[in-house]
Amino acid sequence: MSLTCAELRTRLAEAEAALHELTIGGKVVVVRMGEKQVEYSPAKAADLSQYVQSLQEAVDKCDGKRNAGRRALRFFAVDE
């Protein structure tokens, strides 16, 4: 089943909100994935973060952005 761009955006918003709640509250959150619901505990935050990233990449494709999710990381030294 292929999702529309609007459905992808809705799921992305829900997943981002759940990740935020998990991060600040540290409790179990439930995310809807089609017909099923998946529970994420603080120990599974990385899995939820990966799901958010995959949704963001799908939304970027809908918006016509190429490689928007793939950016080089840069590290800077901070002098104190």
Provide key terms for this protein.
80 residues; alpha+beta; Head-to-tail joining protein W, gpW; 2 strands
Describe it.
Strands 1-2 form a two-stranded antiparallel sheet. Helix content is 49%, strand content 12%. It has a single domain (5-62), classed as Head-to-tail joining protein W, gpW (2-Layer Sandwich), CATH 3.30.1580.10. The chain is flat, with a radius of gyration of 15 Å. The chain contains 2 helices and 2 strands. The mean pLDDT is 82. It is α+β, with helices and mostly antiparallel strands.
The secondary structure category is alpha+beta
What is the number of domains? 1
Number of strands: 2
Stretches where pLDDT falls below 50 for ≥5 residues? none
Widest sheet: strand ordering: 1-2
| CATH architecture grouping | 2-Layer Sandwich
CATH topology: Head-to-tail joining protein W, gpW
Give the percentage of residues in beta strands. 5-15%
The secondary-structure element order is HEEH
Topology:
Blueprint: H1 5-25, E1 29-33, E2 36-40, H2 45-62
Antiparallel strand pairs: 1-2
Helix pairs in contact: 1-2
Short structural summary:
Helices cover 49% and strands 12% of the residues.
